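fyi for ur records
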Amino acid sequence: VTLDFTGSVDGEPCAGGEGKAMPVVIGSGSLVPGFEEQLIGIKEGEERSLNVEFPKDYHAEDLAGKKALFEVRATEVAEEELPEIDESLAEAFGVTEGGLEKFREEIHDNLSREADDRLAIVLRDAVFQAVLDKNEISVPAALVSQELNLLLETAEKEQPDIRNNEEVVAMYEKLAERRVALGLILAEITEKEKMMPDAEAVEQRLQQLAETYEDPSAFVEWYKADRKRMADIEAQVLESMVVDKLLQDATISEKTVSFQELVKPATGEAEKED
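which gave:
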């Protein structure tokens, strides 16, 4: 279903509560609980009023636990039609040799990479949250202001008037405080442990990123041609080194989840970081 919508809380428009041509897959569970269920049976051109309640742990604190009203209009309604699984499907995805067996192999490899990347993000966020929970730190206002400005500049590309929304700015300010606090703590760890990004690990990370592109060698050359881009890769490697170091003395609990659960969009600060 493709929707135009407006949302309000207590009769007042809510932050990020307006949009046009938003695609929604009913049953995907990607929206606020109760939203998708109320769209069942909607027809193109039909308007509906949806009453929902944001979860208490919703990432936007000003909306957490609040009841909201969404006025929606369906501009398009479509049903998914799955194609036949045959060699013509494989060819449509660029697999011209090896047929279905090669196609399945490539899908499996892509999903494995996606799972590995998501696991790394989940692990990183759990470690960083534990670090913040165990270390109270006063962050310099000047650094928070600088980080907030960078975040807002990025957000302005999609929402030019974002600085006029006090609630959204306050949300970004909390994120800026978190990022600055983490940055200071991690910088202290890397200095104390005398950590430097390993050249081999940097190359390995670069090759890993390149695997997802049609021409991996061109991607690698593009990165290596710019020192700033390579610095970003080095920062990722250094971050992973810090995570590995912190995990050496951590008490770890593990749980098994399905692939669908793993790759489901995150909520909270992790989602914004990602």
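The radius of gyration is 22 Å. thats all i got for now
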